[in-house]
Amino acid sequence: MLDSILGSLKVVALATKTDFRSVTSREVALFEGPMGWGEFSPFLEYSYEESIPWLLSALEAAYAKTPPLNRSVIEVNATMPAIDNPDEIAEILSAFDGACVVKIKVGGDTKADLARIACVRELRPEAKIRIDVNGLWSVDQAHAFLDQVGEIEYVEQPCSTIEELRELKKRTKVKISGDEIIRKAKNPFAIDLSGAIDILMLKVAPLGGINRAIEIAQHHQLPVAVSSALESAVGISHGLKLAAALPHLDFACGLGTGALLAVDVAALPIINGVIEVRDIEPDAGALIKYAASNERLNWWKNRIRMTWSAGAQVIAKERGWTT
Fold it and tell me: Cβ–Cβ contacts within 10 Å for residue 187, how many?
């Protein structure tokens, strides 16, 4: 299996429209299997051990059947990076056709964060607002900000630890969503989320694939939303399948982030606030046009070998994917 993966591997570098959490070019590795294309794209700083779920998700996409789907289109939210220029904010929003929900990145300068939210509200007055903190606040900082921000749908990962989230939940009526607390856990099934969060954020690649993400959702029995990790259209298509396979989908999903890329390997458009759930095959011309250097291709091949040896091989064999 490993030889097959490496033999079909394509690595592309996809420019972003703006600085997104210090990312201006997204490198992704793509490979083809009997069931379609998989994407392996853990961020560059992730260790081999941290990258194991990402490789398992890609293997599932390429070598396993998709579970039954319950919906054919997925409502998506707009995603607003931590930018401050009103014209740039308007330009980003315009890329999310018909989105009725906007997720806004915050957690830096409070004045700038509040101004960004106010700008989005002025441009999309009917839209629901959710904010994403990536665990950057203390309990006191979170409480103070939530007192100022006005009505929002929920706050995503305001603090980094379970204990902090529980304390904050006692002090605010704003719903809390958990992201990093789940996807960075060594064992997402072992975490006690009671009294800490109201909503579970699922991301297909960091959680090890569609089936494992569904199992995590079933275990915790919380309302869920699905989001992306700034993947290409290939990776996003598997996030869409996760959202489509869930028995219940309670919120618009953060799966429109392809709109933040200046280029992509395939078209996956947002139309009237939704994206169609379908298989994606990368465009052959795009794979050539946006191909990374041979040096980067070899770097990604080595990363896959090391992630495979670090534990992905054993789990893939247990799941019956090895050939």
Answer: 6
Between the alpha carbon of residue 249 and those of residues 14, 187, 225, the distances in Å are 30, 23, 7
Letter for the amino acid at 23? V
Give start and end residues of each alpha helix (H) in 191-278: 210-220, 233-245
Residue 120 to residue 193: CA distance in whole angstroms = 31
- Domains of the chain, CATH where assigned: 2-65+284-318 (3.30.390.10), 73-276 (3.20.20.120)
- Catalytically active residues are 105, 203
Cα 12 from chain centroid?
A: 18
**CB neighbour list of residue 120: distance below 8 Å, 6 or more residues apart:** 80, 89, 93, 102, 104, 127, 129
What are the residues facing 299 on neighbouring strands? none
- The arrangement of strands across the sheet holding 128-132 comes to 78-80, 101-105, 128-132, 155-156, 176-178, 199-203, 224-227
| Residue 111 phi, psi (nearest 5) | -60, -45
pLDDT tens for 115-154 read: 999 999 999 999 999 999 999 999 999 999 999 999 999 9
- The two structure tokens encoding residue 53: 């779920």
Q: Which H or E run contains 104?
A: strand 101-105
pTM above 0.90, yes or no: yes
Residue closest to 258 by CA, chosen among 291, 282, 284: 282
Residue range 197-225: average pLDDT?
98
d(C-alpha 306, C-alpha 68), whole Å:
33
Residue entry with tokens 């379970």: 162
Distance CA 182, CA 150 (A): 27
